[in-house]
Amino acid sequence: MKISNHFYRTTVRASFRILGCCGILLLSILHAQAQTDKRMIRIAQIEVDSTQLKQYNAALKEQMQTAVRLEPGVLTYYAVADKKDPSRITILEIYADSAAYLKHIATPHFKKYKATVAHMVKKLELVDVNLIGSAKQHGL
Are 68 and 96 a contacting pair, CB within 8 Å? Predict the structure, then answer.
């Protein structure tokens, strides 16, 4: 039985396309497994002595800016205050991984922050969380 040249070329092309798609799918799966999110995400809920709020906010901003500038493992900080009670502060902290966090809390600027605000903080609760999802406007 003789197979036509056209049929043979078409079959070979289709086979290569299927193999290529399977290869791409396999590489995508392997890449996704390698990219498992190792980030450490923490929410700090802080109650500050309202008479020292200005000083606390200044120390917090200095610590956050220094950490992001000097430490590649410190990815994000967002600090917000309750509109009704500005002495209630929530901070979202994102680190590359738990090793980056441990490195961060050993830095001189973090130790300075902790010493500076020790008498200002009335309550501190740390909550480790997992990211469910995120969304933001393009370009932000």
Answer: no
Candidates 111, 117, 121; CA nearest to 46 is 121
Q: How confident is the model at residue 133 (pLDDT cuts 50, 70, 90)?
A: confident
> CA 88 to CA 38: how far, in whole Å?
29
User: How buried is residue 62: exposed, middle or buried, by Cβ count under 10 Å (0-12/13-18/19+)?
Assistant: middle
Its sign, for the CA torsion 50, 52, 57, 60, is negative
Q: Is the pLDDT of residue 71 over 80?
A: yes
Q: 49 — phi, psi (to 5°)? A: -60, 120
pTM above the 0.85 mark?
A: no
Q: What are the two backbone dihedrals, phi and then psi, of residue 19, each rounded to the nearest 5 degrees?
A: -60, -40
Q: Could you tell me where the DSSP H helices lie in the chain?
A: 5-34, 53-70, 98-105, 108-117
Residue 117: count other Cβ atoms within 10 Å of its Cβ: 19
Closest CA to 91 of 107, 80, 83, 102: 80
Helix (H, G, I), strand (E, B) or coil at 35: coil
